[in-house]
Specification:
- The protein is built from 13 helices and eleven strands.
- By secondary structure, the protein is α+β, with helices and mostly antiparallel strands.
- A hairpin with a 4-residue loop joins β6 and β7.
- The protein is globular and about 70 Å long.
Length: 308
């Protein structure tokens, strides 16, 4: 199934500290490694393309390139801690090496042995793994929303989590020991922002309950439900919507997203200059889509890649 992020429950529960761009890169690495079979060995690097990042998270190619450049150094230094069945802990890096190809728009990363083990050994052990579609978190702007969503997805079959002890919960979200130490700041800057983004952008509605020891909050638990699917529009409604879309300019994220998809269509070859790469072609297509006439001209191909 396309763009499925799969992690062992232990990896989801790991204590970690990652930025949003680092989290997104790891999501892509897990998805692409599982779907292509590349990168599932400590001897085989995985190529993460800037255009792929831009498409997945609805950001501009420039923002995607910047995320890759920053990750070459910062992601290599990041560590996480897993609690084993016997109570012992395992510490590991996420990647063992990174090589950014300057001017080529991609980075080569090699996952560590521990990460590979916790994203691949699923057959026959599905109950020990958590999975979700990348699209469900693509619009999150807070890394805490991504982490909380992953923790919730462990319990998607029942829609309710156990109580998370406060200090461990903070570490699982990636909050430093000296960050948001006051409960008011933690709830306002972390928890409520994460909940708002999950409720707005994902496929679930979630609420929380706080637990106390005496007068002090000691932890949180969560309950959530799947959002109701919207009724499928009629054929006439779809045609009207398509006509309306063509009468408007595409947003920048839409242009970059669908330009990347268009660049790979064989029927777009007549617009190619021949010597340019897919990334260069996609950027030029994105410029073409600023023009309303070009937008109409390319509408059959846009519909083919899911715009209309």
């Amino acid at each position: 199934m396309a763009d499925l992020v799969v992690k062992s429950n232990k990896l989801v529960q790991a204590l970690q500290t990652l930025s949003l761009s680092e989290t997104r890169l790891l999501q892509l690495a897990i998805v692409d490694a599982r779907e292509t079979g590349q990168g599932l060995s400590t001897y085989t690097p995985l190529e993460l393309n800037a255009l792929r990042y831009a498409q997945a998270f609805n950001v501009s190619p420039d923002a995607a390139y910047l995320a890759l450049i920053e990750a070459e150094d910062s992601l290599f230094k990041r560590q996480f801690t897993i609690t084993n069945d016997d109570g012992s802990t395992t510490k590991s890096r996420w990647i063992q090496d990174a090589n950014y190809k300057k001017g080529q728009g991609y980075i080569l990363v090699t996952l560590t042995r521990v990460v590979i083990e916790h994203v691949t050994k699923i057959d026959g052990f599905e109950q020990y793994f958590t999975s979700y579609h990348l699209q469900k978190t693509a619009d999150f702007k807070s890394v805490y929303a991504v982490r909380l969503y992953e923790l919730l997805m462990q319990w998607k079959s029942i829609g309710k989590t156990p109580q998370y002890e406060l200090n461990k919960f903070r570490s699982q979200l990636g909050i430093g020991i000296n960050e948001y130490t006051r409960m008011e700041a933690f709830k306002r800057r972390v928890l409520e922002i994460a909940l708002d983004q999950i409720n707005e952008f994902s496929d679930i509605n979630v609420k929380y309950e706080q637990h106390k020891k005496g007068r002090v909050i000691s932890g949180f638990s969560f309950s959530f439900k799947q959002k109701k699917s919207k009724d499928k529009p009629s054929q006439d409604q779809t045609k009207l919507k398509n006509s309306d879309l063509l009468s408007k300019k595409m947003t920048d994220p839409q242009r970059y997203l669908f330009a990347g998809k268009l660049s790979e269509l064989p029927e777009m070859s007549r617009y190619s200059e021949g010597s340019e790469s897919y990334s260069q072609f996609a950027i030029r297509i994105a410029e073409m889509l600023k023009d309303s006439e070009k937008l109409k001209e390319l509408s059959p191909m846009l519909e083919k890649v899911g715009y209309l």
